[in-house]
Amino acid sequence: MDYAHPEILVDVDWVEENCLKKGVRLIEVNYNPEKAYFKGHIRGATLIRWEDMIKEESYVDKAFGQAWVAGMDAYDDGLPRDILDRGEFEKLMSKHGIERDTKVILYGDHGNWFAAYAFWLFKIYNHQDTCLMNGGRTKWELDGREYVLEETQVQPTKYKVKSDSEGDFRASLDDVYDSLDAKDMRLVDIRSPEEYSGETTSSKDLGLEEMDKKGHIPGAVNVPASDTVNKDGTFKGHDELLELYKSHGVISDESVVTYCRLGERAAHSWVILRYLLGYPNVASYDGSWEEWGTARGVPIKTSCKPDGTDVNKESKPEKKSKGWGGGFWGRK
Predict the structure, then answer these.
(1) Residue 56 placed within a domain
(2) Please, what is the Cα angle at 102 between 100 and 105, to 5 degrees?
(3) What is the CATH number of the domain that holds 267?
């Protein structure tokens, strides 16, 4: 069976033939560009770094009604990250020479995880013609295709966002917290089995520092991102993906929320569930373990079994308002 929305994917042949055409903007999205883009990239590609898509500043933790600032003991691994606001997103798009009708092709390192995060962000701000190059750098390199070193120069534009879909595509800490006992919600942990069980909090691919709190959000099922792709980095077929998620109880009749450590793998699986399988109610909790694992008063499970009882039930403070995103639940 074909994907529900095959139009959001292009293959490496299409990119090689069309990447320099007018109206097409090819963007490489990197977690570590020094080990990727700057060592060689597809001709015509501009660069978006991971940090270009997030805010790196203190914020008011609305979920618990307290103001957090850099250096507070409540956070183990720096401050939680927020997405670009509308104006910042417009500046990013303008910098890359993107118009409202530009066809944007995203690809990147680390299994296309961060390219998928960019895809999710572009869809939040409703840039309609956004695609992923299936397989990312992994597929391109396995095929032995050409890279270039010269950086692409583009003419800046004056991009304007017309509307956003944040409430449909994004879940907050409060959304997840308030729905832990919901019967019609499925929480999907995209991290490795070792991260899920509490052995570690760091993906081997990213080399992140360990966090003090380990485990997973109670009720979450573990469907690692690595199980959803082929060896060449391309997505597995529709039927194989559907069987994988169904085997973990993730069905289209329920609301689904994905999460990981930083939000990038969560976005990768969000793309699969929403666009490749066509699940209607899927959101990404981009705060993910960086936020949940540093927040006070949230429950954490360290058992690797779905029905395990090894749960650290912390006190549950009164919440005063919605945190990041929000508005996902009840929007069927």
Answers:
(1) no
(2) 130
(3) 3.40.250.10
Per-residue pLDDT of the chain (332 residues; tens, 9 = 90+): 899 999 999 999 999 999 999 999 999 999 999 999 999 999 999 999 999 998 755 343 433 333 333 333 333 334 456 899 999 999 999 999 999 999 999 999 999 999 999 999 999 999 999 999 999 999 999 999 999 999 999 999 999 999 888 889 999 999 999 999 999 999 999 999 999 999 988 776 777 788 889 999 999 999 999 999 999 999 999 999 999 999 999 999 999 999 999 999 999 999 999 999 999 999 999 999 999 998 988 999 986 554 333 444 443 444 433 344 444 433 33
Q: Judge whether 182 lies within some domain.
A: yes
d(CA 181, CA 236): 31
Q: How far is it, in rounded angstroms, from Cα 183 to Cα 163?
A: 32
Say what the alpha-carbon torsion angle 112, 117, 123, 124 is, to the nearest 10 degrees: 180
- 119 HSE (CA, 13 A, CB side): 31
Give domain status of residue 98, yes or no.
no
Count structural domains, the chain. 1
Residue span of the structural domain in which 204 resides: 166-312
Q: What is the rounded distance in angstroms from the CA atom of residue 10 to the CA atom of residue 18?
A: 10
17 part of a folded domain: no
State the greatest distance between any 2 C-alpha atoms of the chain, in Å, as a whole number. 57
Q: Which of 19, 131, 260, 304 is catalytic?
A: 260
Is 19 catalytic? The answer is: no
Among residues 130, 136, 154, the alpha carbon closest in space to that of 36 is found at 136
